[in-house]
Amino acid sequence: MNAPHKYLIKGVSVLGRPKTDLLIQDGVVAEGDAKGAEVVDADGLVALPGLVDLHTHLREPGREDAETVESGSRAAALGGYTAVCAMANTSPVADTAGVVEQVYRLGREAGLVDVQPIGAVTVGLAGERLAELGAMATSAAAVRIFSDDGHCVSDPKLMRRALEYVKAFGGVIAQHAEEPRLTEGAQMHEGEVATRLGLTGWPAVAEEAIIARDVLLAEHVGSRLHVCHVSTAGSVEVLRHAKARGVRVTAEVTPHHLLLTDERATSYDPVFKVNPPLRPASDVEALRKALKDGVIDIVATDHAPHAVEDKECEWAYARPGMLGLETALSITLSVLGEDWDLIAERMSRAPARIAGLDGHGHDPVPGAPANLTLVDPAARRVVDPAESASRSRNTPYAGMTLPGRVVATFLRGTPTVLDGKAVK
Amino acid sequence: MKHLLSAADLDAATATLVLDTAAEMASLAGREVKKLPTLRGRTVVNLFYEDSTRTRISFEAAAKRLSADVINFSAKGSSVSKGESLKDTALTLQAMGADAVVIRHPASGAPHRLATWVEGSVLNAGDGTHEHPTQALLDAYTMRSRLGRLAGLKVAVVGDVLHSRVARSNVALLATLGAKVTLVGPPTLIPVDLRTEVCYDLDSVLSDTDVVMMLRVQRERMNDSYFPSEREYARRYGLDGPRMRKLPEHAIVMHPGPMNRGMEIAPEVADSARSTIVEQVANGVSVRMAVLYLLLGGKS
């Protein structure tokens, strides 16, 4: 092994502050002698703490044709991420210590981001009995977030037990809020567009009813709750109310719910099919506002790669989900503007806190772990699906011009991205 | 006009052109030789993913009367998991040189997808709960021939609007052509935000309506709690003799078929002089001839 490299990031603006130089050495942001350091010209670039994604589908094991831990890690690094939380709905499901350890190990081997596995709440995501949550918590993967994402833990008793049980090891339940009886056969947001297109509606109340129930359950048992992909104005109001009461609840919003509306379904192109579905502009507006004022804590991608055949088909037969890792920062930037401190909070510090990832979410200042990303805010790029590092191509942003570009990403002092390209 | 995917895509001029052309086609039906040479050498594929003998036969008759070669491709039974994808089927039809594909499919929007994969014209013959544009055209044709006009007509569309592609196409087309539509049915079967007049009480609309269009109600809907029982549905929303007698003298009763006699429509009504149900079938062939002619033959 070569001795760890030294890097001098010259003329960078840390979170929009005046220009400075950052020395990266021995895995931390250092002070001292920069002699012999490799210089990274960061004129015009902004340094952010490495982004943390609380909601990533890496598809391995099971659907390696759509994504692998390695390809997803590469997409993440290119998007400015240094850590991603891998959802449990793989095949086999990540509901045992064995599977979460496998994913954890694959992440280590890829070495592009820290891959933190999420464990399933129930065996096989079936919503019937608890998976061995404790075994996953004490495994090498040290799982702290548990989620049946893709499915809702809809049984109230089971949800209560899960919320209570994970208190023993500081866990949190991340709920996919969708009352299944209200969304049978649902294809898109229930509203004017769905009516016109003849697609079965997914009503906002199906999400809001579960969030309302869950915040009351979390309050009742004194547990932490995290709400995945909040998509409606009504959900925001439920969360606002719960937070005002002191309920320990956090919430995420996806980039696509911040940018796209249900009008996109008019093409019947399933690249716009996602769960929860794209909502009308009034919801998008409420989500943007909630992200700014903190009712929604974080941006999480819900990066969901799908093979071509699962999207090049009829809308009703397509799988829901869209890519997100490589575009999330640009979209957040377009929504929040160049408020770098707020972006760092919503995309790095807060998700790191929720996930309990102590080495992440620290501003790149001397003494901090060198998990950081450098962004060129002046750059504009046109999204080309063929350029994605993901194995899949199902980005809903094809052809759109987005602001900002990740120039470099460092994971514990080692570059994973340089000059906008993955190092390996 | 390249494709006919949705009645909502038709402007008033185009829709009127289809109806006028259909009238010319209808005049053929009285001749001894019912065939025109217009589409000789052109290939029309009927691609049916759902059973629908009446619609398929209607399209087949229409294409044959225009001298087109017709290929019937019944894709039913080739499930999505086991069978060929729609895209691969589209490429196959493309390779065979289909000039037009008439598609009936259980998934809303399938014709729109198909249109992105083939070079020929795509005709929507009913997609999921979305649209059935030629049905709306033949309904408009029927209304116009019976009542002499469309603008200003009061049309009540009664029944399971939520799941009805016929209703969606009719609402769109009739609005374009200046008729006034009222949707009637239980609130559970009226979709949100269709931007049309809604009434939950059938009796209150009958005395002031020119057309009553009864929709087929699937008995399965009962099991999904859209309404409590067939009997209650028939009592509240079925068109029976006493209700029919509340209609103005000139009013007509339509049904796209197949009917559930005794459920949404009483036999007495279906077989009455007001009923246009058999006429609708005959008009279907003329309207489909007109559409095929305008899509394939109109320009050459």
UniProtKB/TrEMBL annotation, chain A:
Residues holding Zn(2+) 2: 149, 176, 229
EC number: 3.5.2.3
Binding of Zn(2+) 1, residues: 55, 57, 149, 302
Catalysed reactions, as listed in the record: (S)-dihydroorotate + H2O = N-carbamoyl-L-aspartate + H(+)
Domain annotation Dihydroorotase catalytic: ranges: 46-233
Free-text remark on how the cofactor is bound: Binds 2 Zn(2+) ions per subunit.
Active site: 302
Amino acids binding substrate: 57-59, 89, 275, 306, 320-321
Family to which the UniProt record says this protein belongs: Belongs to the metallo-dependent hydrolases superfamily. DHOase family. Class I DHOase subfamily.
Protein's name in the database: Dihydroorotase
Phylogenetic placement of the source organism: Bacteria, Bacillati, Actinomycetota, Actinomycetes, Micromonosporales
Gene designation per UniProt: pyrC
Automatic annotation (TrEMBL), chain B:
Listed PROSITE patterns: CARBAMOYLTRANSFERASE
Positions of carbamoyl phosphate binding: 54-55, 104, 132, 135, 257-258
Catalyzed reaction equations: carbamoyl phosphate + L-aspartate = N-carbamoyl-L-aspartate + phosphate + H(+)
Annotated pathway: Pyrimidine metabolism; UMP biosynthesis via de novo pathway; (S)-dihydroorotate from bicarbonate: step 2/3
The protein's name in its UniProt record: Aspartate carbamoyltransferase
Taxonomic superkingdom: Bacteria
Alphabetically ordered keywords of this record: Pyrimidine biosynthesis, Transferase
Species per Swiss-Prot/TrEMBL record: Phytohabitans aurantiacus
Domain Aspartate/ornithine carbamoyltransferase Asp/Orn-binding: 152-295
Gene name of the encoded protein: pyrB
Membership in a protein family: Belongs to the aspartate/ornithine carbamoyltransferase superfamily. ATCase family.
